[in-house]
Amino acid sequence: MKLVGIVGTNSDRSTNRQLLQFIQSHFSQQAEIEICEIKDLPAFNEPEDKTAPAGIQALSDKITQADGVIISTPEYDHAIPAALKSVIEWLSYTTRPLIDKPVMIVGASHGSLGSSRAQAHLRQILDAPELKARIMPSAEFLLGRSLQAFDEEGQLAYPDKVKELEECFDEFLLFVEITNQLVKDHRFKTEQNRQFSWETANGGNHE
What we know:
Layout lengths: L1 E6 L7 H12 L5 E5 L17 H12 L2 E5 L9 H12 L8 E7 L7 H11 L7 E2 L5 E3 L15 H27 L1 H8 L13
Parallel strand pairs: 1-2, 1-3, 3-4, 4-5, 4-6
């Protein structure tokens, strides 16, 4: 199984990157996980031709080709970082690769809550009509006290959290298999979702 892990921050020093690196290494026998950075991607600016910049297109292609996506998000002011929101806006406005794509949300924070509000925020965003990701239900992986969570080799030092993550990851692999089979059987609806436009729906999404 091929998965894409998205580091949900433009910070050079992030425990969310460390978390994804641990996931990549720890589950290497179960899945091939490519970690993707967003720190060099441009801010969303709503181009008239709806063409994605090269970096966004490259990320979109990787998401399209992957069986599923893992997003690791920190929490800034009870929400996801602006950089992650910008990337998601690019994807929703241009290529829409997240439609019907299985997504697992994880997060690390320096405090004890483990980015719980940001994860809830991200779930809400990913359910928007232009995104419509298939988010793994009833599963949160919240890594609190993340500055002390990893040893010098990058291993997760909390045994209870390792066990919890293993259970979440096993569930996600099953979720990916079931979701992709379901989507395969209803491909027409996926294409309909990709053609969604606020101009032909009630309300408005952009300026």
